[in-house]
Amino acid sequence: MTAFFARLDRAVYRAERALVVAGLVVMSAVVFLDVVHRTAADPDGLLVRWLSGDGARGGDVAASTRTAATILGFLLWWGIFAFALRSRSSDKSMSLRRAAGVGALLTAAGYVLVRGIVVLFPNGFIWSQPFALVLLLWVGFVGASMCTYEDKHLRVEAVERYLPDAARRPVAVVRNLLTAAFLIFLVVASWKYVVFHYEEWVATEHLGGMFLGTKVPRWTGFAVLPLSFGIMAARFVGRAVQAARGTLQTRDAVAELVAGRRTAGEGAS
Predict the structure, then answer these.
(1) Which residue segment(s) compose the domain that 194 sits in?
(2) Are residues 134 and 111 in the same domain?
(3) Comparing C-alpha atoms, which of 72, 71, 107, 103 is closest to residue 86?
(4) Which residue of 6, 43, 131, 244 is surrounded by the most CB atoms within 10 Å?
């Protein structure tokens, strides 16, 4: 039975890790697309304002200035790509001509991609910031649950270090059970909070109870709270059982810090 719960905990941890990675990727992508769209959709970008010299904007900017800014931007990115390809450490044999050609292709492809984003999404990604915050909420609390699995949560050990060996086991049992009890309290409180937002979402026929600027119901974003607290509570109960059996293995943060500094010192010498 113990082996079964260990495998189950490991499977949950792997799912959490995949969820965190996916959340970080999606969060980075939507914020990046928002920045790209805001920059590309602005007809008076940095280069246009720099070339105009007098701070003119909108219709006061000459068409020739906009054209010159587009050409200058293309040449600038072309040079950046060519330099990056030419100077990369993994391939010193790339000729200047080849680097310039590949750089031109990458710049052209990037320009087409950016213009395509502007055309396909004329209203931009106004939902990206609140959506990224929802993902950040999930990543943060799922990451906290992962820290519990890895035994990397904050723990005050000043008193426990000076306890006799006979007292450490019951103290560990009580400590983990108290932590689990507090997490169960948070599960109940956060569950009521999620239910409140869910009832609001249902009462408005799915027209309200959304995160601002998105169509994501608030209850789906906050659902991570009881979920992560529940998983952490179960893990602390498991640690209490292990402590009672004398099989609980804990990380010695001080010993790890000393060993890390010793290794760093040996590497520097």
Answers:
(1) 128-268
(2) no
(3) 103
(4) 131
